Amino acid sequence: MAGRPVRVAILGFGTVGSSLARILCERKLPDVELCCIFNRGVARKRVPWVPSSVVWTEHFDEVLAAGPDIVVEAAGGLEPAGEWVRKALAAGKSVVTANKKLIAFHGPALEALAKHHGCQLLYGAAVAGGVPVIPGVQQGLAGDRIHTLRAILNGTCNFILSNMEEGMGFDAALKQAQSLGYAEADPTEDVDGFDARAKLVILSRIGLRIEVQPEEIACRTIRDLAAIDFAYARDLDCTIRQISRAEVRNGELFATVGPMLVPRSSPLSWSRGTENMVISGGQYGGETVFSGHGAGGHPTAVAVLSDVLAIAHGGCLVAITGTRAKVDSD
Asked: For residues 200 and 148, what is the distance between their CA atoms, to the nearest angstrom?
């Protein structure tokens, strides 16, 4: 890559993929060049603001043939995204992804594959979108020993609960979230805690250095909350948020995701709308708070591009794999 721009291919031209392409085209970075866009039914995705030199394709083999140095996976889900990422890494292409589900379930194996083929796998956007939690923990807090994580990791749930706090019912708040594009037609992943759980797995791996599988962490839904719950919370000078919590005690991991009472004095109670927040507790450095917009095309694309630039400029985020520990929920 010395002496020429780093060539980037984007897999998936949805919310994040199109936002990344837009930033690359508008900023015209001298050291990064968009070379290929891959999507199913790609003809309907074409836009005039992408340079004519960019290859549009719906065949993955043509992505690799376009000669990218970095493949950005923005399709989401376990498969076929996982197959595409494995093929890219096996071909010696570095991969950048925001796919929290893929990294939660297969992150260590994919990191090992990248190392074997002399390339990198970065996923700074997989947790909290545009909030630099992963690089902050991996690099900024590398000198500490983190023992607790408390977090709001799902912007959809935070939006719903923020509105319920103001008097809106769950069904109405969910409908509004769907109308604004924050929630899918099927909101199960968000409201039942599975999305936040995948992110907590990743944070536990890099922050607590504990290896845990998603299904080992208990989740509780927010569907059963009602206005009376928020009234009781106010009487206790608290509010209610979907909290992802992980703590290491004597080599055991205690982790859970679900609605919890949050004291008004806690920074977690201040989070509104689709904001995400992560509070890490360290043995030496104490508490560190990360907060910001955790969802949306542009914030997530900024985090993805930051990983692309880290590779382009020769930087490397060291992959941290964890040890296995007994997992419990309390």
From this structure: 11
Q: Are 174 and 156 in contact (CB under 8 A)?
A: no
Q: Read out DSSP for 152-199?
A: E--HHHHHHHHHHHTT--HHHHHHHHHHTTSS-SS-HHHHTSHHHHHH
199 is catalytic: yes
- The pTM of the full predicted model, rounded to 2 decimals, is 0.91
How many C-beta atoms lie closer than 10 Å to residue 4's C-beta?
A: 9
Q: From CA 78, how far away is CA 109, in angstroms rounded?
A: 13
Give me the catalytic one of 45, 93, 100, 199.
199
Helices (H), the chain: 15-27, 60-65, 81-90, 100-116, 133-135, 155-165, 170-179, 188-191, 194-203, 227-235, 297-312
Contact between residue 248 and residue 208 where contact means Cβ atoms under 8 Å apart = yes
What is the Cα–Cα distance from 214 to 253, expressed in whole angstroms? 13
Q: Compute the distance between CA of residue 226 and CA of residue 8 in angstroms, rounded to an integer.
A: 47
Place of tokens 């997530």: 300
Q: Which residues are paired to 293 by β-bridges?
A: 275
First to last CA, the chain: 50
In this structure, the dihedral spanned by the alpha carbons of residues 59, 61, 66 and 72, taken in order and rounded to 10 degrees, is 80
- Whose tokens are 């919310």? That residue is 15
Q: Each residue of 90-140: pLDDT tens digit?
A: 999 999 999 999 999 999 999 999 999 999 999 999 999 889 999 999 999
